[in-house]
Amino acid sequence: MVIENACHSHPWSEKTFSSCIGGRYFGDYAQQDNDIVGFFIGEFVVDEATLMDICVKPTMQGQGLGKQLLNQFIEQAKNKGAIKIWLEVRAKNISAQMLYINTGFVEISRRTGYYPSATGFGYEDAIVMCLEL
């Protein structure tokens, strides 16, 4: 939860986090010097996967760990039989969008006013992206 809280202005609750363990959910983490520095959680249903959450410890960002975790997620989704991968990203999170675009994701649609803003005033859009495998 420490990384989750550090990465998101509106982090998941422990209850939400716990509900995404097992069953149709899957995940992995990155470790450095016996310290967890990032993770992802995905969901697999029928032949599609969704990237539910991906985080890299703020002090470790910009070192390729997000790309490594995203590639691990894609590989695990493929191994489960996914033919499409979906995700949502905040419209203001340009660095994450660039990571996804450079990996082959394309913008499919936009959800207006989907996320509470980081400042707590108003809302911001979510960009829905898809990668066809």
Helix/strand layout:
Layout: H1 2-7, H2 14-19, E1 25-32, E2 35-45, E3 48-56, H3 65-80, E4 84-90, H4 94-103, E5 106-116, E6 123-132
Parallel strand pairs: 3-4
Antiparallel strand pairs: 1-2, 2-3, 4-6, 5-6
Q: How would you describe this structure to a colleague?
A:
This is [Ribosomal protein bS18]-alanine N-acetyltransferase. It is a single chain. The chain is α+β, with helices and mostly antiparallel strands. The protein has one domain (2-132): 3-Layer(aba) Sandwich (Aminopeptidase), CATH 3.40.630. The chain has helices at residues 2-7, 14-19, 65-80, 94-103, and strands at residues 25-32, 35-45, 48-56, 84-90, 106-116, 123-132. It has a six-stranded mixed beta sheet with strand order 1-2-3-4-6-5. The radius of gyration is 14 Å and the shape is globular. The termini are far apart. The model has no long low-confidence stretch (mean pLDDT 92).
